[in-house]
Amino acid sequence: MSQTRQVRPFGIRDKLGYLFGDFGNDFTFILSTMILMKFYTDVIGVSAGVVGTIMMAARFVDAFTDVTMGRICDLSRPVPGVGKFRPWIRRMCVPVAAASFLMYLSAPASWPYPAKIAYLFVTYILWGSVFYTSINIPYGSMASAISADAGDRQSLSTFRSVGATLAGLFIGVLLPVIAYQKTDGVEVLVGSRVTLAAGLFSLLAIACYLACYALTAERVVPEAADGERKSTLEMLKSALHNRALISVIVASIVMLLAQLTMQNMSGYVYPEYYSNSCAQSVSTVLMTAGMLVAAALAKPLAARFGKAEVSAASSAFAGVMSVITYFINPQNVWVFVGLQTLGWFGLGMFTMVSWALITDVIDYAELQNGVREDGSVYALYSFARKLGQAASAGLTGWLLTAIGYVSGSATGQTAEVQSGIFAITTLVPALGFFLLALVLGIWYPLHKKQVDENIAKLKQKHAEQN
């Protein structure tokens, strides 16, 4: 069970603080999904296949670092007056921002090819597998410590997703303006400009993390239960028998396959297929508008129909929009932007409730195992999200290589390559969206009725223990 620390009541300050936390996360995370592969292919001169493979390989490191950080969070004792998870936000905000900046230095462009690959591998591991993990796992786990109320946690999930959406808007609008230069009618990525943008976003990430630390408060303090804690191996074995956790992990992987492929390919489809990188900025603004509409609708719809039910339906809608876009094949970039916006709206419904889904899974695991291990469960979920990130990066890199994409071409891509870019941009996300709808609609067990029953059981359990 857990005790509740007597602090100020939960309110808008906590919601805004939690929003700033994901704003900070995504100043480095979204930046990597939007530009890292193109930076290394077009500026540094590493093939897309190699970049994708490195991103995939890094996930094997995450298998250890994510779970280890989750166990550290569960077994650590709260800092008096601060909490169990918030101290990590303050400790790690500068290292994660600095590691992100190092990935975008343009100096390695003149190095020997093996040295380029080694630099990418080392800096990517430091950022994603070490420092990002050490701040993201405590941040994600912190939601259950900010409040024990299910409604409060849904609000935190929505505000977290809004934070990510606003970060995506800021980066998506500003990055193309800073990073690209038009030369002889061709949009060219400039290495020094990417470095400048990365430095700016790293500084903003630190400011957002510090705002998260200052505005939030941990109220739920887990009781010491060292004798009840399972070993890491036992925890992993329990996870394999947790249908809710496994299915939500698979859902996250396929969701990120769709979302990040759309984000990764935006750096190719707009400058290469439509020769209009400015449209990418407009698309980001409209995507944000669609996500904010989803934020307004997510909570009442989830309360009425259930989080999983709404997510499955909206994901199917996004898949249909992607397929329609492929077959229409609009030659007008603004028609393409409009269709993409509708797809983003469908994705937004799941995004707004996804973090509340994992708190449902944590409740479910507590009922199964008798011990609440927020950090460990969230670590496995985070690892799954990184697998989705890597799968998208790896798949994008391999597919670009397969269609014959030429890194840093001064004359633009051939018509065949441009058609391949368009197909990847639309059909790969469509596959991810349809798989997501199937997983949430059929496999995932925590639909509305079951969630309500679990909440009632936990309330009764904690009342009896008190």
The N- and C-terminal alpha carbons lie at a distance of 9 Å
Order of helices and strands: EHHHHHHEEHEHHHHHHHH
In spatial order, strands of the major sheet run 1-4
| Strand proportion | under 5%
Defining key terms:
two-stranded antiparallel ribbon, 466 residues, 4 strands, 79% helix, 15 helices, mainly alpha
Could you give the topology of this structure?
Elements: E1 2-4, H1 12-44, H2 48-75, H3 86-102, H4 113-141, H5 143-146, H6 150-179, E2 180-183, E3 186-189, H7 191-215, E4 220-222, H8 232-240, H9 243-273, H10 278-305, H11 307-328, H12 333-369, H13 374-402, H14 415-443, H15 448-465
Antiparallel strand pairs: 1-4, 2-3
Helix pairs in contact: 1-4, 1-6, 1-7, 1-9, 2-4, 2-13, 3-4, 3-7, 4-13, 6-7, 6-10, 6-12, 9-12, 9-13, 9-14, 10-11, 10-12, 11-12, 11-14, 12-13, 12-15
Description of the structure:
The protein has 15 helices and four strands. The protein is mainly alpha-helical and 466 residues long. A two-stranded antiparallel ribbon has the order 1-4. It has a two-stranded antiparallel ribbon with strand order 2-3. Helix 1 runs antiparallel to helix 7, helix 9 runs antiparallel to helix 12 and helix 10 packs antiparallel against helix 11. The protein is globular and about 75 Å long.
Give a nutshell description of this structure.
Helices cover 79% and strands 3% of the residues. It is built from 15 helices and four strands.
